[in-house]
Amino acid sequence: MTRSLRELWAFFWRDLSIARTYRTVFVLEALEALFGVAMFFYVARFVDSPQLRNALPQGGGYFAFSLIGFVFLDYLNAAMDTFDRSLEEARDSGTLEHLLVTQTSLPVILAGSAIYPFAVTTLRIAVYVAWGALFFGFPLRGANWLAVAAVLLATLLAFSGLGILSASYLLLFKRGNPAKWFLLGVSSVAGGMLFPISVLPDWLQIVARLNPVTYALDAMRAALLGGADVQAVWRPLIVLLIFSAVLLPLSMAVFSWALRRTKTTGTLMHR
Amino acid sequence: MPEAAIAVASLEKLFPPARSGWRAFLQPFEKPSVVALAGISFEVRPGEALALLGANGAGKSTLLKILATLLLPTHGHAQIAGHDAVLDPRAVRRQIGYHAGSDLGFYARLTGRQNLRFFGRLNHLSDAASAQRIALLSEQFHLGEALDRQLRTLSSGTVQRLSLARALLHQPHVLLLDEPTRSLDAIAASEFRRFLKSEVLSRGDTSLLFASHTLPEVEMLADRVAVIDAGRLVTCDTPAALKRTTNAASLEDAFMRLTGRSPHLTGEGTPE
After folding, report:
1. Mutating which of A3, A100, A101 best tests the B interface, going by the most B Cβ atoms within 10 A?
2. Could you give the CA distance from residue B169 to residue B125 in angstroms, rounded to a whole number?
């Protein structure tokens, strides 16, 4: 356990050290977030109406609703992209072979490669919400931070499985991310990101109810806007945890199989 | 009799044929048919240095990658210190230091020291032990100030020296080196060979399997030489015995004769 933690720390330290060589990126991303938040604020002002407020589950206005949907999409994107990007970078820099001949196990290598990107994405979400609260009246006072953290963690675990599946595809076929394309495509319509799923036709609402993104977003909005505690969001949390319990071992098995396949065909380092 | 440091038995490796266009999509599922290794068997004893000598594409790198657990053999067995490379790859990785023969494999925006420390941590070295080893290897490989510069600013020869330092960092019992002095200048190559001979191999607990096209290097380092041609082991013997049995004046000449490339054997031109 201690050894695995040390290995995970090594990956975090590696990525942090690399990121520190690109210092201005942090500042630029924070400014970009400010413009993004401002855009959502003015779009919300343009479309907000009493009817719209009534249609939103937690009330609180369209600005808060849409900003959470947007930053959550960022999180989902990170979960789906991180493993792919780490794998691609390791392959292109030639470090993949050298990582795989170390004494560190494959699950730790995969998890280690994701820690820093997830931490940065979490920080980015915090920056978005902070800008929203500081300048545009995003309602933070009633938020239940423990429930927010629990939802974020469950979401991360649930979607990491899909990210690892996507990396398995990349390992075998060298290009493309069909899992991300499918999930983000479906979720942008039937996930409740920018509008409540109640406006969808019945059959799309059924699709939305099968989509874990819907549960994650419901729980996040309830915790952040409605002040719901962990007990109040247990249903979506359980759905996300079931999703993780199935997907994580499955994706690890598929990734191990894909890795064995590339070791058989000699295409591990092919681009 | 002590257990072999490296034992390779009837090792075969076939690759699927290379495809382009849409057929490349099917390559992961193609039947392997291109022979890279065709039933190679040999052993390396503890403390012994064995050189792999062969033309480009003979199968040397494939063999090293199988032993480093980066490729799976089609048939046969490859063992390091009694551990099977297919059945127990983690135990194998605990024993080996691997150098891939290219100047890739590092993080360009980290310094040499940061890179070495990272790989040291993944090989379970404490930070203190890592710092001690980095200091020693830096001295031996004349890394000096290069250690604290970003990789992207270093010459390929310096990166190659760092890569060799990485392979030796955790003091492995088996070294697998693919063309270790390829990008080094003559002085650096000579110093590396001297270091390997006097500081690593002389201890007697480290075995070396290396591929090289530099014949003086092979003669200086190798106790025995395995000549590989088109995936087959032609012979495996001491450099002196190879020269003697082929009646050759040099190892180069012996190699040419053993692989049928010598005018003397092929009947082309004037016999020596």
Report:
1. A101
2. 9
Subunit contact B102:A94, Cβ cutoff 8 A? yes
Q: Which of A25, A97, A98 should one mutate to test binding to chain B, selecting the residue with the greatest count of B CBs within 10 A?
A: A98
Residue B43: Cβ-neighbour burial (10 angstroms; 0-12, 13-18, 19+): middle
Residues A202-226, buried b or exposed e (16+ Cβ, 10 A)? eeebebbeebbbbbbbbbbbbbbbb
Nearest by CB to B15, from A6, A99, A266: name it: A266
Determine contact, residues B243/B230, Cβ cutoff 8 Å: no
Strand B96-99 relative to strand B224-229, pairing:
unpaired
Residues in chain A: 271
Closest CA to B233 of B62, B65, B50, B40: B40
Q: Alpha-carbon Rg of chain A, whole angstroms? A: 20
Q: How many residues does chain B have?
A: 272
DSSP letter string, A168-216: HHHHHHSS--HHHHHHHHHHHHSS-SSS-GGGS-HHHHHHHHH-HHHHH
Q: What are the extents of the domains in chain B?
A: 6-102+172-266
CATH code reported for the domain at B6-102+172-266: 3.40.50.300
Least confident of B16-25, B101-110, B203-212: B16-25
Helix, strand, or coil (residue A98): helix
Distance of alpha carbon A58 from alpha carbon A227, whole angstroms = 10
Q: Give per-residue pLDDT as tens, B82-110.
A: 999 999 999 999 999 999 877 779 999 99
- ipTM score of the complex? 0.88
Are the beta carbons of B211 and B49 closer than 8 angstroms?
no
Q: Over the stretch A203-255, which tens digit does the pLDDT of each residue have? A: 999 999 888 888 889 899 999 888 889 999 998 899 889 989 999 999 999 99
Instruction: Report yes or no: A187 and A158 within 8 Å, Cβ to Cβ.
Output: no
Q: Which two tokens stand for residue B270?
A: 């004037």
Q: Are B122 and A102 in contact (CB under 8 A)?
A: yes
Structure tokens at B8: 């390779």
Question: Cα–chain-centroid distance for residue B54?
Answer: 12
C-alpha separations of B85 from A137, B157, B166 in Å? 60, 31, 21
Nearest to B228 by CA among B51, B69, B13: B51
Backbone angles phi, psi at A193, to 5 degrees: -75, -55
Structure tokens at A237: 């949390």
What's the start-to-end Cα distance of chain B, in Å? 43
Report chain B residues touching chain A, CB-CB < 8 A: 15-16, 25, 27-28, 30, 32, 36, 62, 68-72, 74, 90, 93-94, 96, 98, 100, 102, 104-110, 114, 118-119, 121-124, 150, 166
Q: Starting from the edge strand earliest in sequence, which strands make up the sheet with B96-99, in order?
A: B96-99, B174-178, B207-211, B49-53, B224-229, B232-237
